[in-house]
TrEMBL record:
This is Doubled CXXCH motif domain-containing protein. It holds the Pfam family Paired_CXXCH_1. It comes from hydrothermal vent metagenome. InterPro entries: Multihaem_cyt_sf, Paired_CXXCH_1. Signal peptide: none annotated. Residues 146-185, 191-214 form the Doubled CXXCH motif domain. The lineage of its organism: unclassified sequences, metagenomes, ecological metagenomes.
Length: 214
């Protein structure tokens, strides 16, 4: 019996697999200066390499955060009203607001504040409510009063010095002021007067004869 030898093509080779590795090149800490404040953002650059062409590297994204300005330092000695509170570096810029309380514009600080006795405190002459009601009718005689008035008095909604709002609100609009305490009400109201004129069209924010301040 004759045996026939089989021809072989050599050792069998495994097919090559294309490998792709993710390589982190470097992270760049970036400092961005915005309006007197600084924000730090890390920009991470990533690319791939291997047997296939690498995709283009995306543009880095930088996020900036506005930091609140540092408060002005208090004077180290007693400052008299006659020296002009608004001429000082710490109070002068407040007069640049779009709407300024008339007593503040007239530099009549002593109508609301007692003289400085040290520490640059200038306490109010009387309570906030009594200070405001000496010139303003706040509707305190109404049967129902706004809770904000009974707890924080006028300062809950108004800035006694100046504001971006003609009513000297703590926010630039009536809606924004109300939503500081009533954020859950904004998404469920589509009443036309509310959409066009906001809360003040139906509600009296100071007080009313109705429990809903209508």
């Amino acid at each position: 019996m004759t045996r026939t030898a089989r021809k072989t093509k050599g050792p069998r080779q495994k097919p090559k697999r294309k490998r792709m590795r993710l390589v982190v090149l470097f992270a760049i800490p970036t400092v961005v200066v915005v309006g007197g404040g600084m924000a730090v953002a890390a920009v991470l650059l990533v690319r791939t390499r291997g047997d296939t062409p690498s995709p283009p590297i995306p543009e880095p994204t930088v996020t900036t955060v506005q930091l609140p300005p540092e408060p002005a330092p208090r004077p180290t000695e007693v400052v008299d009203f006659a020296d002009g509170c608004m001429s000082a570096d710490c109070h002068g810029p407040m007069a640049d607001r779009p709407h300024v309380h008339q007593t503040f514009a007239d530099e009549a600080c002593d109508l609301c504040h007692a003289p400085d006795t040290g520490g640059h405190i200038y306490p109010q002459l009387v309570t906030t409510e009594d200070t405001c009601t000496s010139c303003h009718d706040t509707g305190a005689d109404h049967r129902f009063q706004h809770k904000a008035m009974s707890e924080e008095a006028c300062l809950a909604c108004h800035d006694p010095h100046g504001s971006g709002s003609p009513a000297l609100l703590v926010a630039d609009t009536t809606e924004a002021t109300c939503l500081r305490c009533h954020p859950r009400d904004s998404g469920k109201i589509n009443h036309e007067p509310y959409v066009t004129d906001h809360c003040g069209e139906c509600h009296d924010p100071h007080g009313a004869g109705n429990a809903m301040l209508l």
